[in-house]
Write a structure and sequence with these properties.
Largest sheet: none
Number of strands: 0
Shape: globular
Transmembrane segments: 33-55, 75-95, 102-120, 126-148, 160-180, 192-210, 321-341, 361-379, 386-405, 411-434, 446-466, 478-496
Number of helices: 20
Subcellular location: Membrane
GO molecular function: monocarboxylic acid transmembrane transporter activity
Oligomer: single chain
Distance between the termini: 29 Å
Domain Major facilitator superfamily (MFS) profile: 37-502
Membrane topology: Multi-pass membrane protein
Number of domains: 2
Order of helices and strands: HHHHHHHHHHHHHHHHHHHH
CATH superfamily of the largest domain: MFS general substrate transporter like domains
Length: 515
C-alpha cells in the first residue's frame, strides 16, 4: 500500500522542493482561521448533503402527489444528488477563475432558488428541472469549495479536519429528516420545500467565511519556498494591489493606459475646462478597459490551469492509481445512496413502520455516520497508521453490509446493519485526504472534482435502477446484490493498481542498472 504521492513515485512537476528553504509556519495553517473554515464546511454539509440524505421523505410525498412509478419519481432525488457531484470538474473551472468564496456564494443563491421553485411543481418533469438541475448545480457550487478549502488550510490534521467538517452530513440527515417530516405533516410538502429554500440561503454566509489563502500561505503549508515562486507571488500581490494584470497582457494594458493618459493630459492642457469633462469620460473608459482586461487575464489563467489538469503533460489521468480511484468512485456511491432513498419503502414492505417511527433506520445511519467520520479521521492521523489502509477496510465493511441487507427482515437486524453502514461510510471524510496524497494540494480542486463527478454518476443511476428493478421483481433484493457486486469490482481496482505501480517502481532501477 502507499501513504502519499511520493510513495507511488508520481510528481506533477510543480518544483516546490527545488531551491527551497524552510519557512516559519503560518498561524492560519492547522489553526486560527482554519477552524472557521471547518465550521463553514460543517454547515455546508448540513444544508447540502444532509438535505439530500433526507429526500426519502419527499420521495414518498411525490409518489402520492403525482402518482408516477417509483423508478421515474426516484429520478428527482437522483438528479439532485448526481448533478451536485457530476458538475465537480466544471466547478473546478469556476474555482480557478473566481475563487472558492465567490463560487460558493453564487451556488447558495442558485440552490435556494431551486428549492423555492420546486414548491410550485405541477408534475415530475418540472421537478427534474427545478429540484434536480437548478438546486443540484447550486449544491455542487457550494460543496466542492467547502471540501477544497479545508484541504488548503490543514496539513498535519487533515483527516480530523475533514472528518469534523463532513460530520455535517450525518447531523444534517438526522435534523433534516425530522424537520422535513414535521413540516410535511403540519404544512404540506410544498410549504416544507419553500421553507427549506429559505434556510438554504444560509449557504451564502458559509461561502463568505471561505477566506482564500495567499500563494505565500499555500507554500508555507509545507514549510518551503522556492525563489521562482517568491517572484511570482510578488508579481501577483503587486498586480492585486495596483489592479493591473501581469505578463505580456499586462504590458499591453499599461501601454494603452500610458497612451490614453497622455492623450487625456494633452486635452486638458489645450482645451481647458471643456476638455476636463472629456478627460473624465476618457478616464471612465480607461477604468472599464482595465476591468475587462483584468477579467480576461483571470479567465485565461484559470482556464489554462483547469485544462492542463485534464489534457496537459501533467494530466491527472497519467496517474494510474488516480484512474483506479475514479473507477472505484463510479461504483461506490450508489451503494450508500440506495438505502437512504428506498429504506422507507422497504420498512413499509416488511410491516415495520411502527418500530421505524420510533427510531428511523435512516436516522441510525446518520447518527453513527457522524461518529464514523470523526473516529476514522482520528485513526488516520496517527503516525503509525496508513490512511489508505483505513480507507480500504471501511470500504470492505460497507460492501459486506450492502450485500447482507436483503437477508434481514427483522428491525433489530436492519438496525445493526444500518449502524455498520453509517460507521463504515465515514470513509467519505478520508476521500479528500487520499486524493490530496495522490495529486497534491495544487491539483486538489480539479482532482476531487473528477472524483465526486464519478460519485455523481453513481448516485444518478443507482436509485432509479433500484426502483426499476423493484417495478419488475416487486423486491429490492437484486438492487442491493448488483450494486454491492459492482462496488466490489471498484475495490478490486483500488487493491490491484497500487501494487502494480510499486512493482514497476522497484523494477525501474534494475532496468536502468542493466542498461
Amino acid at each position: 500500500m502507499y501513504a502519499s504521492r511520493e510513495d507511488i513515485g508520481y510528481d506533477f512537476g510543480d518544483g516546490s522542493k527545488v531551491g527551497s528553504k524552510p519557512m516559519k509556519p503560518n498561524a492560519n495553517i492547522d489553526g486560527g482561521w482554519a477552524w472557521m473554515i471547518v465550521l463553514s464546511s460543517f454547515f455546508v454539509h448540513i444544508l447540502v448533503m444532509g438535505s439530500q440524505m433526507a429526500l426519502g421523505i419527499l420521495n414518498m410525498e411525490w409518489l402520492e402527489e403525482f402518482n408516477q412509478s417509483r423508478g421515474l419519481t426516484a429520478w428527482v432525488s437522483s438528479l439532485s444528488m448526481g448533478i451536485t457531484l457530476i458538475v465537480g470538474p466544471f466547478i473546478g473551472l469556476f474555482i480557478s477563475m473566481c475563487g472558492c468564496r465567490t463560487t460558493a456564494i453564487m451556488g447558495g443563491i442558485l440552490n435556494a432558488l431551486g428549492w423555492i421553485l420546486s414548491a410550485y411543481a405541477s408534475n415530475v418533469p418540472y421537478l427534474f428541472l427545478t429540484f434536480g438541475v437548478t438546486a443540484g448545480i447550486g449544491s455542487g457550487m457550494v460543496y466542492l469549495p467547502a471540501v477544497v478549502m479545508v484541504g488548503q488550510y490543514f496539513h498535519k490534521r487533515r483527516a480530523l479536519a475533514q472528518g469534523l467538517s463532513t460530520t455535517g452530513t450525518g447531523f444534517g440527515a438526522f435534523l433534516m429528516t425530522a424537520l422535513l417530516k414535521y413540516l410535511c405533516t403540519e404544512l404540506g410538502w410544498r410549504n416544507a420545500v419553500f421553507i427549506q429554500g429559505a434556510i438554504s440561503l444560509n449557504l451564502c454566509a458559509c461561502g463568505a467565511l471561505m477566506r482564500p489563502l495567499s500563494p505565500k500561505d499555500v507554500r508555507e503549508k509545507y514549510g518551503v519556498r522556492s525563489s521562482s515562486a517568491d517572484k511570482q507571488a510578488k508579481a501577483l500581490s503587486h498586480s492585486a494591489e495596483t489592479g493591473k494584470p501581469t505578463g505580456a497582457l499586462g504590458e499591453e494594458v499599461e501601454k494603452k493606459e500610458e497612451s490614453t493618459n497622455e492623450e487625456g493630459l494633452g486635452s486638458v492642457q489645450h482645451e481647458g475646462a471643456g476638455g476636463r469633462a472629456r478627460s473624465g469620460r476618457n478616464m471612465h473608459a480607461l477604468r472599464v478597459l482595465k476591468a475587462v482586461s483584468q477579467l480576461t487575464v483571470t479567465v485565461r489563467r484559470g482556464f489554462a490551469m483547469w485544462s492542463s489538469s485534464y489534457f496537459g503533460a501533467a494530466s491527472l489521468f497519467t496517474n494510474r492509481v488516480f484512474v483506479a480511484f475514479v473507477i472505484w468512485a463510479l461504483f461506490a456511491y450508489s451503494s450508500f445512496v440506495i438505502p437512504f432513498i428506498h429504506l422507507p419503502e422497504i420498512v413499509k414492505q416488511y410491516n415495520l413502520s411502527s418500530q421505524n417511527n420510533v427510531f428511523p433506520l435512516t436516522s441510525i445511519i446518520a447518527i453513527v455516520h457522524i461518529f464514523g467520520k470523526v473516529i476514522l479521521g482520528i485513526i488516520s492521523d496517527l503516525p503509525c497508521i496508513s490512511t489508505w489502509n483505513v480507507f480500504l477496510m471501511a470500504n470492505f465493511t460497507l460492501v459486506s453490509c450492502i450485500l447482507t441487507l436483503p437477508l434481514m427482515h427483522a428491525y433489530i437486524g436492519l438496525a445493526v446493519l444500518c449502524a455498520l453502514i453509517g460507521f463504515s461510510s465515514g470513509y467519505f471524510s478520508l476521500m479528500p485526504v487520499v486524493t490530496e496524497d495522490l495529486v497534491g494540494t495544487k491539483h486538489l480542486a480539479n482532482a476531487y472534482g473528477i472524483i465526486i463527478c464519478a460519485n455523481g454518476i453513481s448516485a444518478l443511476l443507482g436509485p432509479p435502477f433500484a426502483g426499476w428493478v423493484y417495478d419488475i421483481t416487486q423486491k429490492y433484493d437484486f438492487s442491493f446484490y448488483i450494486s454491492g457486486l459492482l462496488y466490489m469490482v471498484g475495490i478490486v481496482f483500488l487493491l490491484i493498481q497500487p501494487c502494480i505501480q510499486k512493482r514497476r517502481l522497484r523494477e525501474k532501477p534494475k532496468e536502468e542498472t542493466q542498461a
